[in-house]
Amino acid sequence: MYGLALSYLKNQHDAEDVTQDAFVRAWENAHQYRPQGTPLAWLLTIARNLALMKLRERGRTQDMALEDWERLAAENPMVTVEDRQVLDAALTALADDERQIVLLHAVTGWKHREIAGLLELPLSTVLSKYRRALLKLKTKLEGGDAL
Fold first, then answer.
1. N or C: fewer beta carbons within 10 Å in the chain?
2. Contact 93, 107 (CB under 8 A)
3. Is the pTM higher than 0.90?
4. How far apart, in whole angstroms, are the C-alpha atoms of residue 9 and residue 62?
5. What is the pLDDT at residue 90?
């Protein structure tokens, strides 16, 4: 849920708030859950809706500050600050929807069909955006200009 919120909000603190709020909402409304899908999909839908509401309140997205990336890197000793900076620079080559699909796939491990359902997009659109995003990332990381 945090990864989804972060992909929308691009701000660690807002993503943490949305994640916590989503769990609280799920707890308060557990009696309304209908087993039409997976419980995780229900939770992610709550997080998605809260993130979109936060974006509407804020009126625009904000990039994650360098100190936030550094703190995240410190929490994971396998990822250096330089790795985070390279990743951040590469992700700027992507459109917002492409970045969101890549992050959802990488962070949550969701399949493309699940991402399509969550984002309410056709599977073919998710697949093409994912492929295009990977090509852009590859080009950017190899030192070329993104497509």
1. C
2. no
3. no
4. 7
5. 80
Q: One-letter amino acid identity for 23? A: F
Higher-confidence residue: 54 or 76?
54
**DSSP helix, strand, coil percent of the chain (3-state; round to 5):** 75, 0, 25
Q: CA 147 to CA 135: how far, in whole Å?
A: 8
CB-based contacts of 15, cutoff 8 Å, min separation 6: 2, 5, 6, 8, 9, 51
Sort 147 into a burial class: Cβ within 10 Å, 0-12 / 13-18 / 19+: exposed
CA distance 20 to 22: 5
Instruction: Kindly report, residue by residue over 29-75, the tens digit of the pLDDT.
Output: 888 888 887 888 888 889 988 988 888 777 644 455 555 544 554 55
Residue by residue, DSSP assigns 30-77 as GGG--TTS-HHHHHHHHHHHHHHHHHHHHSS--PPPHHHHHHHHHH-T
